[in-house]
Write a structure and sequence with these properties.
Length: 418
């Protein structure tokens, strides 16, 4: 069978993470994704982590094509450059809308309207177009004009307040939680909208508010407050009803194991694996409620036991006994993990200017429509001629006029010239 979204065309105006992730998922499912870059290029071409070494066969040194972050988030897409601040650029974009199914952006709500490309404008080009806009607070309401990125939304949603230790300040999450979650929500909404259009013939506008997406992560805290009037606070690795519950040191440098005990049966299994130490029989540890009251002492005793043992051996012993335990792995260990390899979560692709590199697959498997990642991310303006001439049917003189007006470019314009 063909991939689920084969025959669907997506116009990706996304920048940084949330928008590109949404388009990437749709592309992995078979859609043709055309990334629309501005003349200065996707921001991640200029910032966002290291630059991969120059590949000898690549020719010119073009570091903007060797940003791993940018290439990871845009694999498999076509790439065309259009200046949407120019009327000529918006006219070309509208021509693409007429033959496309979905438009994705993650600008602040004012931007697409300023381009003259809001939903009402796109509907005039194609009545059943699906438009998905991802913004910090959504397109309506008193905060709709405020801009923000994932880390800001982690704070605004309450997630940052709940992250950290009980005796310390709020801590930012270690990754761009909200950006990735918002992109996945947008992709799900896109597939739902396609399903709706298949049955009704109607497109729709989908307004994704990143703050609201992030709030779903702290749903238990919201319910706790609305039902009990109790405002949760940061608790580190601890759990409101499970003890022990945390990360414990093992032998070696930065080797840790996570252990979670959810019942009296699991506690007894842990005690048995530890060899039945006398301290585990003390009154302060005999019930779940007492263990919760004495977590500081309990964590100290358990840490003293794990600190003299190999992390992976402890994990296997506990898991075999039916105790929830997992090694805290670093990046290399994740890549080398036999389960991850068996599931083929990473694929190798060859990028013309970065060489061979790993890209992550979708975290779900569909045996009847397996996803195969073969195309790397595009280099800047890679598909200008293909999109303009073969997809849109523009003549060479028409394309040349776009270059003369710098409506499109083959080399990014310096940001300061924008």
């Amino acid at each position: 069978m063909g991939l689920p979204l084969q025959g669907t065309r997506v116009l990706d105006l996304g920048r940084l993470i949330a928008g590109p992730i949404a388009a990437q998922v749709l592309g992995d499912l078979g859609a043709e994704v055309i990334k629309i870059e501005s003349p200065v290029g996707e921001p991640l071409r200029n910032v966002g982590g290291p630059v991969a070494p120059v590949l000898e066969s690549a020719g010119d040194d073009r570091p903007y094509n060797r940003r791993p972050w940018c290439n990871e988030l845009n694999r498999g897409k076509l790439d065309v450059v259009l200046d949407l601040t120019q009327e000529a650029g918006t006219e070309v974009f509208k021509r693409l809308v007429r033959i496309s199914d979905i438009v994705i952006d993650n600008f602040s709500p004012r931007v697409m309207k300023n381009f003259g490309l809001d939903y009402e404008a796109l509907k005039r080009e194609q009545e059943n177009i699906i438009m998905i806009s991802v913004s910090a607070f959504g397109a309506t309401g008193p905060y709709n004009h405020r801009r923000g990125a994932g880390s800001n939304m982690d704070a605004a949603s309450g997630l940052t307040f709940l992250s950290g230790y009980a005796d310390g300040p709020p801590i930012r999450t270690g990754s761009y939680f909200c950006d990735f979650f918002s992109g996945l929500h947008a992709a799900f909404a896109a597939v739902t909208a396609l399903h709706h259009r298949r049955h009704t013939g109607r497109g729709q506008y989908i307004d994704v508010a990143m703050r609201e997406v992030d709030t779903t992560i702290v749903g238990d805290a919201l319910i706790d407050y609305t039902m009990n009037g109790r405002a949760q606070k940061a608790a580190g690795n601890r759990h409101p009803s499970m003890a022990p519950h945390g990360c414990y040191p093992c032998t070696g440098d930065e080797r840790w194991i996570a252990i979670a005990i959810g019942s009296e049966e699991e506690w007894q299994r842990l005690v048995d694996v530890m060899g039945g130490p006398d301290w585990a029989k003390e009154p302060q540890f005999t019930t779940s409620a007492k263990r919760l009251e004495n977590q500081d002492v309990l964590d100290g005793r358990l840490s003293a036991w794990t600190a003299t043992r190999d992390r992976d051996e402890v994990m296997m012993s506990l898991q075999q006994a039916g105790v929830a335990a997992g090694a805290v792995q670093n990046v290399k260990e994740v890549l080398d993990n036999p389960q991850v390899k068996h599931r083929q979560f990473y694929s190798e692709v060859f990028h013309p200017e970065m060489g061979q590199s790993l890209v992550r697959n979708l975290p779900w498997k569909m045996p009847r429509t397996p996803v195969s990642l073969e195309r790397p991310a595009p280099v800047f303006a890679q598909d200008n001629q293909h999109v303009f001439q073969e997809i849109l049917g523009m003549t060479p003189p028409e394309v040349e006029r776009l270059y003369e007006a710098e409506t499109t470019l083959d080399v990014p314009r310096p940001a300061e010239a924008q």
